[in-house]
C-alpha cells in the first residue's frame, strides 16, 4: 500500500484472495501429478523376452560333458533400452536316483553391465560342466529346464528406472539331441515369466 498526496492509501497491486490461492494450489497439484504420470509411463519397464538357442553338448573327459547354449534376450521396445547388471542361468534336471531336481549354475560368458539398445536383440553364450554319472544318467539324459534371473534397469533418454529382477523359466532343452545328429540344435526354446 502506498499513500497518495492526500494521505489516503492506494492499493499497490492486485491482492489475492482465498479463491486465487485455492486455484493456484489446485493448478500446482495437477501439474505435479501430470509430471509424475508422464515419468511413470516413460520409465515403465519394457517387456523383455528370453529364449535358448544353439543347445549342444561335447564330451570333456570320462563322464564329464560340456553343455553349451546361447541365451537370446529380445527387447522389442522402441523407446527403452535395457542395462543388465547381472544375468545368471541354471539348468534344472530331475534325477530319479536322487529323487529331486538337481540344479547346475552355468557360466554366462558376457561382461556386465551390458547395454541393450531399443529393438536390438542380444546373444549371451553360456556353458556348464555336467557329470552324467553323478546324476545317474550315463546313457540317456532327459531334457533340462533353463532358469534365468537377470538384474536390469531401463533407460529412456538420460533417465534410468529403478532396478528390476526378471525371472523366467524356459521349456525343457535337449542338449544331447544335437550331439546324436552331429549338429547344433537349430531350434529355439522360449522362456516365460
Automatic annotation (TrEMBL):
Spans through the membrane: 21-43
Keywords linked to the UniProt accession: Membrane, Transmembrane, Transmembrane helix
Domain of life of the native organism: Eukaryota
Protein name (database record): Late embryogenesis abundant protein LEA-2 subgroup domain-containing protein
Amino acid at each position: 500500500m502506498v499513500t497518495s498526496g492526500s494521505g489516503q492509501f492506494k492499493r499497490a497491486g492486485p491482492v489475492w484472495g482465498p479463491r486465487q490461492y485455492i486455484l493456484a494450489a489446485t493448478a500446482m497439484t495437477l501439474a505435479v501429478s501430470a509430471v509424475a504420470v508422464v515419468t511413470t509411463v516413460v520409465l515403465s519397464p519394457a517387456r523383455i523376452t528370453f529364449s535358448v538357442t544353439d543347445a549342444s553338448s561335447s564330451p570333456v573327459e570320462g563322464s564329464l560333458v560340456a553343455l553349451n547354449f546361447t541365451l537370446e534376450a529380445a527387447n522389442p521396445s522402441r523407446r527403452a533400452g535395457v542395462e543388465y547388471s547381472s544375468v545368471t542361468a541354471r539348468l534344472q534336471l530331475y534325477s530319479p536316483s536322487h529323487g529331486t531336481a538337481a540344479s547346475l549354475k552355468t557360466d554366462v560368458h558376457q561382461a556386465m553391465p551390458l547395454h541393450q539398445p531399443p529393438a536390438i536383440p542380444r546373444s549371451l553364450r553360456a556353458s556348464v560342466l555336467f557329470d552324467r554319472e553323478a546324476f545317474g544318467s550315463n546313457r540317456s539324459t532327459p531334457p533340462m529346464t533353463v532358469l534365468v534371473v537377470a538384474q536390469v534397469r531401463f533407460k529412456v533418454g538420460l533417465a534410468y528406472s529403478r532396478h528390476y529382477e526378471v525371472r523366467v523359466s524356459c521349456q525343457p532343452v535337449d542338449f544331447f539331441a544335437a550331439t546324436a545328429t552331429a549338429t547344433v540344435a537349430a531350434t529355439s526354446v522360449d522362456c516365460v515369466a
